[in-house]
Each structure stands twice: as C-alpha cells, then as structure tokens.
Write a structure and sequence with these properties.
- By secondary structure, the protein is of the alpha+beta class.
- The protein folds into 4 domains: 124 residues, Dna Ligase, domain 1; 192 residues, Nucleotidyltransferase, domain 5 (2-Layer Sandwich), CATH 3.30.420; 274 residues, no CATH class; 35 residues, no CATH class.
- 30% of the residues lie in helices and 32% in strands.
- It contains 18 helices and 34 strands.
- α1 packs across α2, α6 crosses α7 and α12 runs antiparallel to α13.
Length: 769
C-alpha cells in the first residue's frame, strides 16, 4: 500500500503454526520476497526500508521494529542487503528465541519516484499463496487530555495566583454538538491552544511557556495539533534522542512563543521540586489515574480541576523561585537555558572559569571520535552473588571530588601516530594501547568495550583500546603490561580548573544544610553534580525534524534514516542520525562545548579512586560511586560531610546481586530494597531474586504494559504491551563459579582482540627482543 508518495507498506501474515523468532531462514526468505516484490520493482533513484515483527502473546499481539533503516538502492543501483538482514534476524533470535511471529512488516522509503513499475518476478501465483500486500496502517488513538489549563505570568505573591489559572474540561462541551469523547477532547485542546495564542499576543513580554514533561506527554499532543494546523501556524520543534526540548510557534513569520520542558531544567517531580523550592504552596496531592474513565468524568470534575490547578500552581511557583535563586547567586537567567547541565556550564564559565589560566579546547571530528573510544563512564559489576551482614557505602559527590582533586587535560591536542618504545610516564592524553592483563589481577582494572554485545567489560587477556594515560600508568603499577601505539596528547600542568567551582558550591551546600535550608541545599547539590556530563555530550544523536515534503525527500536520501512518515497535509516527520562516523567534514556539527577529553578524564580518575575498594576480596558489588563490602571501611575513610569520603548508606542483613543494576537486599530496619533495570522491573520481587539465585538460567516470556507509549511516527500516546524475556543474561560480563551446584562467585572474561593491529604489535615485540 502507498499511504503517500515516497512510502510503501507491505506485510506477510502467518497463521497456525506461527513462525518463531528462531526460524531465521524462513524469516529471511519472507523479508526478501517482500523486498523483491515491493521495493526492487519500484522505479526510484534512492530507497531505504525498515523491518518489524508482530509477536503473538497470550494477551494479544505486540508490534515492534527490529531495525533502523537499510539502504537497498543508491543512485539508481540496487544494493545487496541479504547479509545485513541475515545478521539482524539471527541477533533477534538470540533475544526472543521461541516467541511466535504472526506478521512481518516492511516500510519502504523512496526518493524521486519515476512513473511505471516493472515487476522483476513473474510467479505471482506462487507469491500470492505466501502473502498478500494490504494496507498496514494501524492508528492508535492517543490518551486524550480530559483537563487542561495554564497559569499566566505568576507574580511574586503566589497566594492569589490561582486567579490567573484558566482551565478547560472536556465534559463542559455539549454532547449534542460534540457527540463523542474524542470530539469533546479535540475541541478542548483547540480552544486551549487558540486562547494561549491570544493571551501571548496581548502580553508581548510572555516569550516562553513551560510545561513539566513536555517531552514525553504534553508536547506530543501539542505537536500533533500544530502539525494539523499548518494552514495557520508554523512550528520548529527541537528534538534530540527522542526528547522534545522546545517548540517554537509562529503565526506567519512572527514567532508567538516558545513551548519548553521544565523537567530538563529542573530534573525532579513537581511535588519534590515544590517541597524543596516552594514548600509554602503545599503538596501536589494524588489522584487515581487508572480509575478515571469517560463514564465518571463528570462526578470527578471538581477533584480533577483542583488537582490540576495545584499542579499548575506548583510549577509556576517553582519556576519563579528557581529564576530568583539562580539570578541572585549566579547572575544567570535560567530562561536562556534548556537543560540543567547547560545551566551548570554557564554558571561555571560565568563565575569560575578564567580562560587565560586554563584553556578549553574543542576537539574536531577525528579527535573526538578517537578520544570518545576512551570515554567509558562508571564501573558497574556484580562479583559475589549472595551474602549476609554487608556494608553498602556511597562516596560523597564522587565526580565533583575528582574534578577538584585531579589534573585535567588542557590546551590543544597533538597527534602522535607512532608511540612504540615511548616511556609511558612522559605521555599525557588519550592513548591507543595494546594491553595485557594477567590472571593474577583480581578484579581487572581496565575497561574494554565489547562492541558485538554492546557491553562494558573488565576482562583479563590481551586487547587494544583507547585509555586515559593516567589509568594506563595506574594499570602498569598493579601488574598490567602495555605498549602505547598512537595518541592525542595534551598539555599537563598542575592547574585544576574546577577546584574553585566545586569548593564554592560544596561549601555553600554545607552552610545551607547547617542552616536547615533544604531549598538551597538541593539547588547546590544538583548544580555540583550536573557539570561534568555536559562536557561529554555525544555529537552523535538522533534528530527528529517536522518539515514539508521537500525537506522530507531530502532527508530520506541524504541522512542515516530511522523513520519517516506523513503527519498532516502540511508536515512530515523524519528521524535520522547526525554526526555519525562516516559523514563528511562539512556535515560535522557537534554541540557547543563538546569537550569529551574532560568527561573521559574525570570518569577514568573516578575508576582509579574506586579501585582500592573494588579490589578488596570482600567486594560483592559496585556501581560507579558505591560498593557493597563484607566488612566495614576504616573510620578515617567515612564521613557524611567530607567531599570524596564514604557514607554508610545501608547495613544489609541479606543481599542478592545477580548482575549490574539488578539486586535485592534487606536492610537492618527490615526494609526491602530492589533494583532491576528494564521494562519488567515492576514484575520482580525478592522471591524472584531468590529463585534466580538458585537457577540463574530461568527465564519467562511475559508482557509489560506501558501506559504512556509514544508512537513517534504518528505522534500518538497510547498504552502498549511489550514482550519481555524476564531473566538475567549471565556470563556476558563475568563468568559464574559454582561449588556443588551452588553459585558462589564470579571470574572475569578472557578477551583477545587486536582490532587489526596484530602486525604492528608483533613487529614491536620482535624489535624489543
């Protein structure tokens, strides 16, 4: 089916017995047949496609895409995609095994279509027995807003601010005019947006409108509406990595206002923010969202409107207080910033950074790509799976402590392509090195990125990767061998650029704590912890644009496409990857202050600092700035107020540590703590952890319901079931050790990978002999 020029949808349905994800050859055959019939038979200069499965589960069907877009035609020439599809299908077979497939879909994106279609295949009768091409446009209605409102220009006295709140309620619209709930909801949203435009036009000082969680809910509904009103409004959304930061709304050529997400600037819930910043306004309150139905909206009207007004009031109060605080203490206007990390960076540069004393160098594409290989982040590992009477320690502000205590790479970087024979002590920067980790080092110290499984390992063995020079020196001192191969070297001076920033903010936080000022303590905490990550921002990102057909046609041809679709008569939506490795220099457009060498150095030094505690034989678990130990730390290492020292977070009566970020323990106060990453975290409990500790291979295919799933192709919000293989993948970071069938320990993986540098390494070894 051709929903619009440039897109084709095709599918193949399966009846009993269904295909399984492990039936790789049959899946590959079905996909190729679809491509031959509906892609390769189309006359166009350029084309891409995506593949999706529909899995059959007891409660229904779960659709999901299994790939980004593959190019099948370029400059009018057909490309071979067989091997790519084969690899992808077999990878999904590892994840979903016996899961049943009821349908395979492909979406075909075409550029510069030409008239006429010449089929390549003639065995239509055989093909028709396997599948039938029909329209595959499943539109899920979004969860409509039932109440909506806003606060216009909150003043200093928020006690009367409720008078400035305008509200809309879907059931206030007569049902004899708007006969369905959908019609009433759409009319409500229409009136709200039109009224907002009027208010802004009559108040020129209103330039920005904040909505908390604009990115993941309100903004999606608003984007869809504005896209449908392309005859009146023009929009320019700013969307990165499926996060909506801002919508600029225009009337003609004049910009009316900006819609922004306050959650990216004040990263907490409205209730928690109000508790810290505007406690005099009270709490947000609660409402049982699952119990709200169309049938009981009218009886709940007063409750819903009171709840919404309080929510709006809290956000207005919080924004006003944050504006006052940051302007007073830092001389920075938060309205000029989109995120907390960018706000922290501005405060640092405005109040603490002296360029003449310490220069920040922005790497180019080659430099950034190389150094980013040495940016590994925190260290998370589970060592001993089960234990009693344990100590859970956290470091007080680990990264700020590193930032104020360690020398950082400064000045412009210089490339050195041949370092064999160089003394490591004379090198300062990021070094591609051949390293050897003997079995005697337990646990291993240096990280290694397993690209195949997308896992960060700490293995023994022989491998080549990029490391910060200071961690290579530390590794040498504990028994590693290494040969530097190439490097980007920096200037090393005993100047620490973040010392004054961290000392000042930390001291102010301690003063606020002593004075009982929770508001300012909170402000200083989030500021101090937000700076380092801004430097490491990845230039590679997913960009989503909403533009006209000409821009759409250009993007699907020139960009690394993820998805594309038609939103309305006026707008198309396209997502693609930006700043990928193979782009031309002219397409390299990194974020401002993308200084990856700083973030990479900070995290490397943090791993050095933590290794003393991780390498204890009684270390059960670690996660970046925390350790679980079998015995207590020395008294001089413990303080709840000194930067860089440890505080006892919990005394654990019994704990089970299955994998990084997947553990369960009982505290001394008999409080159960559970952490499990992934969609199924709501399904796990202590009994589940106990059962997996006994049999770690146990898995269960189950479905997880998400109440707010975003369909980025259609800008819809809906409930969605996701199929999850509930279990723990063991052996991908460390190997389990058993004693009489009881899991008692783990050992590191053994890695050998020279990434194509074998000849160079052997030549140096021969020369050294």
């Amino acid at each position: 089916m051709d929903p619009y020029p440039g897109l084709r949808n095709a599918k193949v349905d399966f009846n009993m017995p269904f295909l399984r994800c492990i039936d790789c050859d049959l899946i590959l055959f079905a996909v190729m047949r679809l491509l031959i019939k509906y892609a390769y038979t189309t006359k166009c200069d350029y084309g891409k496609f995506t593949i999706s499965y529909v899995l059959k589960i007891p409660t229904g069907e779960v659709p999901f895409a299994i790939s980004n877009a593959f190019t099948f035609r370029e400059d009018g020439k057909d490309l071979s995609v067989y091997a790519l599809i084969d690899q992808l299908v077999r990878k999904k077979a590892e994840d979903y095994k016996d899961a049943k497939i009821s349908r395979i879909n492909i979406r075909i994106y075409l550029s510069e279509m030409k008239a006429g279609v010449t089929p390549i295949i003639s065995d239509d009768k055989i093909a028709s027995k396997l599948w039938e091409c029909i329209e595959n446009k499943v539109v899920v209605e979004p969860k409509k807003a039932r109440t909506i409102g806003y606060l216009v220009r909150p003043g200093d006295d928020l006690s009367s601010a409720e008078k400035g709140i305008e509200t809309y309620f879907s059931e206030d619209y007569p049902d004899f005019v708007f006969k369905t709930f959908e019609e009433r909801s759409n009319k409500m949203l229409f009136d709200f947006i039109e009224r907002l435009a009027v208010v802004v036009r009559h108040n020129p000082s209103i330039l920005t409108v904040y909505l908390h969680n604009l990115s993941r809910f309100d903004g999606i509904l608003l984007l869809k509406y504005y896209a449908s009103r392309g005859d009146k409004y023009a929009i320019k959304p700013l969307m990165r990595n499926h996060r909506l930061y801002q919508i600029a709304v225009y009337l003609g050529k004049k910009r009316l206002f900006l819609l922004r997400d306050s959650l990216t600037l004040l990263t907490s819930s409205p209730d928690n923010l109000a508790k810290n910043l505007s406690p005099q306004l009270g709490s947000k309150g609660t409402i049982q969202h699952d119990e709200v139905q169309v049938s009981n909206l009218i009886p709940l009207q007063h409750q819903l409107l009171v709840y919404m007004k309080q929510d709006i009031l809290l956000l207005g109060g919080v924004m006003l207080k944050a504006l006052e605080i940051y302007w007073t203490i830092c001389n920075v206007d938060i309205v000029t910033k989109l995120t907390l990390s960018s706000l922290a960076l501005t405060i640092f540069r405005t109040n603490y950074y002296v360029q003449n004393n310490w220069s920040i160098y922005i790497p180019n594409r080659n430099e950034d790509t190389f150094i980013r290989r040495g940016y590994y982040g925190g260290h998370s590992d589970a060592y001993i799976p089960c234990g009693d009477n344990l100590y859970y320690y956290d470091v007080n502000s680990l990264y700020p402590y590193i930032m104020k205590s360690y020398t950082m790479p400064r000045g412009e970087t210089v490339w050195h392509g041949k370092l064999e024979g160089q003394d490591l002590d004379n090198l300062f920067g990021f070094i591609e090195a051949y390293v050897v980790c003997p079995r005697t080092i337990s646990p291993p110290f240096l990280p290694y990125r397993d690209e195949k499984n997308q896992t960060l390992l700490f293995p023994i063995g022989k491998f080549v990767d990029v490391y910060y020079s200071e961690e290579l020196k530390y590794a040498r001192d504990i028994g590693y061998q290494s040969i530097p191969l190439s490097s980007y070297l920096f200037e090393k001076k005993n100047s620490i650029p973040f010392k004054s920033f961290v000392f000042d903010i930390f001291d102010r936080r301690q003063e606020a704590k002593r004075a009982g000022n929770d508001t300012m303590s909170y402000v200083y905490k989030i500021l101090m912890n937000s700076l380092y990550g801004r430097f490491g921002i990845n230039p590679k990102s997913t960009v989503t644009e909403i533009y006209d057909y000409d821009r759409y046609n250009y993007l699907i041809k020139k960009s690394d496409l993820i998805l594309g679709d038609k939103l309305s008569e006026h707008y198309y939506i396209v997502s693609y990857l930006r700043n990928i490795e193979h782009v031309d220099d002219t397409d390299w457009n990194p974020p401002k202050i993308a200084v990856v060498q700083l973030s990479a150095a900070i995290t490397a030094c943090a791993r050095i600092y933590m290794y003393k505690y991780i390498s204890r034989p009684d270390c059960y678990y670690t996660d970046t700035d925390s350790v679980v130990l079998g015995g207590p730390l020395l008294e001089e290492e413990i303080s709840s107020t000194v930067l860089g020292k440890f505080k006892l977070e919990n005394y654990i009566k019994k704990g089970i540590f299955l994998a990084p970020k997947s553990y369960s323990f009982l505290t001394q106060e008999d409080k159960g703590i559970i952490k499990h990453k992934g969609h199924a975290k709501s399904l796990v409990d202590n009994e589940w952890f106990e059962s997996l500790y006994v049999d770690i291979s146990r898995t269960k295919l189950t479905s997880v319901e998400s109440n707010f799933n975003i369909d980025w192709k259609r800008l819809n919000i809906s409930k969605k079931e996701t199929l999850v293989n509930l279990g723990i993948r063991i052996g991908n970071k460390r190997e389990p050790v058993y004693d009489n069938n009881l899991w008692v320990d783990t050992v590191p993986l053994d890695v050998t990978n020279f990434i194509g540098q074998e000849n160079r390494i052997r030549a140096y070894e021969v020369m050294r002999l």
